[in-house]
Amino acid sequence: MSDPYQLLSTIDSPADLRRLPRERLPQLADELREFVLHSVSRTGGHLSSNLGTVELTIALHYAFNTPDDRIVWDVGHQSYPHKILTGRRDAMDRLRQADGISGFPRRCESEYDVFGTAHSSTSISAALGMAVASRNQGHARRQHIAVIGDGSMSAGMAFEALNNAGVMRDTNLIVILNDNEMSISPPVGALHRHLTKLMSGRFYATARRVGQKMLDPVPPLREFARKFEEHAKGMLGPGTIFEEFGFNYLGPIDGHDIDTLVSTLANLRERSGPQFLHVVTRKGAGYKLAEADPILYHGPGKFDPVRGIVKTSLPSKPTYTQVFGDWICDMAAKDERLVGITPAMREGSGLVKFEQQFPQRYFDVGIAEQHAVTFAAGIACEGAKPVVAIYSTFLQRAYDQLIHDVALQNLDVTFAIDRAGLVGADGATHAGNYDYAFLRCIPNMVVMAPADEAECRRMLTTAYDYAGPAAVRYPRGSGTGVAVDAGLEPIALGRGEVRRQSTAAAGERIAILAFGSMVAPALGAAEQLDATVANMRFVKPLDVALVRELAESHDAIVTVEEGAIMGGAGSAITEALAALGIVRPVLQLGLPDRFIDHGEQAALLAGCGLDAAGIARSVRERFGTRVRLARVAGSV
Fold it and tell me: Active-site residue among 89, 106, 142, 397?
């Protein structure tokens, strides 16, 4: 049986690639696409976007002298072909797994990963910074290339960078717009509509074909028409937008025509000043199933590439995302003031059904988190009730808006914060480890964390009923599997509950104060330790009365949270104890003060000591194997 990667197997670096005759590049593209498909089918990961950039990646490394020439991949969803061509082909079988390579570019992983990315719209800023530094350091011929998708162009940061770059005529910056008409969810916004209407619309293509047919018999007129066409395209096409920013615009060109790509990029390599190349690609290109449904194949798990992704019946335990999706539909049916907002995460945030049922009250604002939050604030000003569905890691991007535009004005905005805590294979760039800490310090905020799916639904109602900014943060995946009531009953604001009561004698009593996803493992640890477990529910307002009661009736306090240990929920407990004047030994457990790499979610939590066994072990190490404590003044 012949080697399906006969040519690809000889490429261990871009230097090897650049030694190939140009006519062999299409064969390499075919092999690389096949390798990406079969590799991702075995590990899971981002597929559609990577299939769409195979030819572009080859052409970039062929035309430019990487890594001396810098390539910055915006987001990084499309960087697998880049990884394969830069010496990591054999490492792809451990992609996004513990001790394996990342699914995103990482500076520590390869000299070819010149900038770490995973959040959108950062590439132009980073590449411009590199270009300025290179200019100042005398690297006059070095090129700096930002590859950014059309979805990422909707973010304000991209336009801030374009605005800055356009006046820097003496820097070598090339922006490549990878226009595949997709981000993760279907694309939205005026820019996308403009690109699609003018460059993919029937009017331009039809007019061009008719003009050619009419003028073909008259060569002088045909040449005149060609020049007029170019002039008209300049007036009508998207290039006028970017040229107004000070860029030299070229395109659009076919992103799957490798010969044209190489020629165009080779020409750009010799130019200086801000250059803008518009490349049109197809997400999922070369794999018909992904071409037909690029959303389904955006980030699949393991699958059979022959059969494709087989949709199975719903799992017995609903995910927290599904709980939210059901809740927002039910609440919208009850209250016509509700509107749902997402920054380009319709599927991920569970809003597909909401959009179908309430299209006039659904708003996908594109990859624009800052705008999403202030947009919600404006809606709240007029008496409507916005619900912002957003990942924890993406809410970080709108922190000023959260403080200045929502909380400072005490506006009635509900935040449904998904992917809180560790997120598994996506790793540190997408982990929602910091929301406890950055939310609880904001005046007027209410911050909740459900122990299970049923409590999540009730907390969402509590947040919605609260006349001010309120957040419910919940983890990726499923909870404990408790039945979820179909009602819309809230819970008492700022009230926790005791889930397990210790029977230990005086001097041995431990109280574990657990938040959100850590209630279940805390209960498991408590069975080994005979400890009391409180489901604290609220980080803010904290149930201070319950904290006092447990501190006065127990000999030591343990706090457990799936969040950053510094400044988080455990810190709220120690601050409360200090304010109450109660001195007890306190053990704070949470995510350590370091970035936690990618891997399987449960294994990562266990590695941080946040499973039942780890919690019990930490308590015994701190307080002794018998968990016997002298009832004397301890330290907080």
Answer: 397
369, 508, 561, 562: the catalytic one is 369
- Tell me the pLDDT tens digit for each residue of 386-421: 999 999 999 999 999 999 999 999 999 999 999 999
pTM of the shown model: 0.88
Q: Which CATH number fits domain 320-473: 3.40.50.970, 3.30.420.40, 3.40.640.10, 3.40.630.30?
A: 3.40.50.970
Q: Phi/psi zone of residue 79: left (φ > 0), alpha (ψ -120 to 50 degrees), beta? A: alpha
Query: Is 233 known to be catalytic?
Result: no
- b/e for 65-94, b at 16 or more Cβ within 10 A? ebbebbbbbbbbbbbbbbbbbbbbbeebee
Average pLDDT on 49-54 reads 96
**SS3 label, residue 470:** strand
Q: CA 613 to CA 123: how far, in whole Å?
A: 42
Residue tagged active-site, from 33, 83, 283, 509: 283
Distance, in Å, from the CA atom of 263 to the CA atom of 46, rounded to the nearest integer, reads: 29
DSSP string, 60-104: HHHHS-TTTSEEEESSSTT-HHHHIIIIIGGGGGGTTSTTS--SS
Told to judge if 283 belongs to the known catalytic residues of this protein, a careful annotator would answer yes
